[in-house]
Amino acid sequence: MTSSPRALIAEDEPLLAQALQQMLAQQWPALQIQCVAADGISAASQALALQPDVLFLDIRMPGQSGLEAAAEIADSWPDQLPLPAIVFVTAYDQYALAAFEACAMDYVLKPVQGPRLQQTVRRLQSWWGQRQQEAHAPISAADTAHSLQTQLAQLLALQQQLQTTQAAPLQIIQASVGSQIHMVRVQDILYLEAADKYLRVLTASQEYLIRTPLKDLLPQLDARQFWQIHRGTVVRADAIASVQRDDAARLWLQLRERPEKLAVSRLYATRFRAM
User: Fold this and answer.
1) Would you say 10 and 56 are in contact if contact means Cβ atoms under 8 Å apart?
2) Which of 143, 159, 233, 237 has a 20 to 30 A CA-CA distance from 111?
3) What pLDDT, on the 0 to 100 scale, is given for residue 107?
4) Domains (ranges, CATH) in the chain?
5) Is the model's pTM score more than 0.85?
């Protein structure tokens, strides 16, 4: 017996969420809408709890963006399950849409138009039919892992492309320490780590706290020099001495001038492959 596909919609504008639900009900009656989330944080928690087959994620939402929610879901998704299909609902311009197309991630533009949504629905129906066939055939753990790695690599590439800024990379970070403002050269920073309401900025010998969120600072850094390795951690690439894999297959970075080891989340593990 073929099961019905299940979906989650994340959209902070109730009228748009309702319109999308109505169009999906007309174009794909078999699709069950499990949940409608109004922000990125709820979307991630509900997706991990309900494990739907399809995610419709608005890019711009309160709390965290659809892209950040997708990254959190991908990082925490059970290893034995295939990732859900992800469709981004966006008001981005044509320049940014090239990033979605290059990374093979589907999208629909706001306001959602019936004919364009129908194209996406056809792709999803084809994908769902193939997935149902595979469900009745033995799939090796290696095949599942390869599929997961491919999806994670696509999501990471999309994230990097959308974070790219045309402005010159940041050169100095100003950090307050008591009554002084320290001018920290970006080239001296080994890594940055989110910590509650602050962002830790670490050099070889010093630690500073700033209030700028990592997601706001990241687009100002040179992506060739600073690599995100976790939702809350960015490391300077040439500060990495080695990459180690533990018994649970998790990756850890050893830095050249700091004693601590840094965990690499699953989404960003695709960066580290032997040449």
Assistant:
1) yes
2) 159
3) 86
4) 6-163 (3.40.50.2300), 172-271 (2.40.50.1020)
5) no
Please provide the distance, in angstroms rounded to a whole number, between the alpha carbons at the two ends of the chain: 46
Give CA–CA dist 274/2, Å, rounded: 41
CB 175 within 8 A of CB 201: yes
CA quadruple 111, 113, 114, 117: dihedral sign: negative
pLDDT at 1: 41
CA separation, residue 219 to residues 167, 168, 169, 206, 207 (Å): 9, 10, 8, 23, 21
Least confident piece of the model among 117-121, 198-202, 268-272: 268-272
Q: Is the pLDDT of residue 95 over 70?
A: no
Question: Helices 66-76 and 141-163, interaxial angle, to 10°?
Answer: 160
Q: What percent of the chain has pLDDT over 90?
A: 54
CB atoms within 10 A of CB 77: 20
